Amino acid sequence: MKKMYSLLAALFMASNAMAASEPPVETLDSGVKVQKMKTTQGPSPKASDVVKVHYRGTLKDGTEFDSSYKRGEPTTFPLSRVIPCWTQGVQRLKVGEKAKLFCPAKTAYGERGAAGVIPPNSDLNFEIELLGIQ
Predict the structure, then answer these.
(1) Given Cys at both, which of 31, 37, 69, 75 links 104, Cβ 3.0 to 4.6 Å?
(2) What is the pTM of this model?
(3) CA distance 89 to 38
(4) Domain 30-133's class?
(5) What is the pLDDT of residues 53-88, one digit of tens each?
């Protein structure tokens, strides 16, 4: 019995250690989730700013639909002219930070989907690196 207790205690400690090593997830009122993988002390953009980012976008099943990394070049755009998930989530980042964004369909492309690549009502995942604010 003592041996079993020791084993259960070790498993409990290991699972708590793994959970503690996962970066925290911030859930916004819209349901967008932001999980910072790398943090910095840089400035954060406002919705009216133009940002430079590297990113990778996937469907819920892991299918990649877009990647600036694959193109070998970051992209720059007005933060006010992208899907709400990005406008909300990228404002939570500081220059130099990397994060995962989890976008409910209503904050992504909703019922319309996008260009035959993203089906209607799709939840999306993004890995984003905020490189700069212009």
Answers:
(1) 31
(2) 0.82
(3) 15
(4) alpha beta
(5) 999 999 999 999 999 999 999 999 999 999 999 999
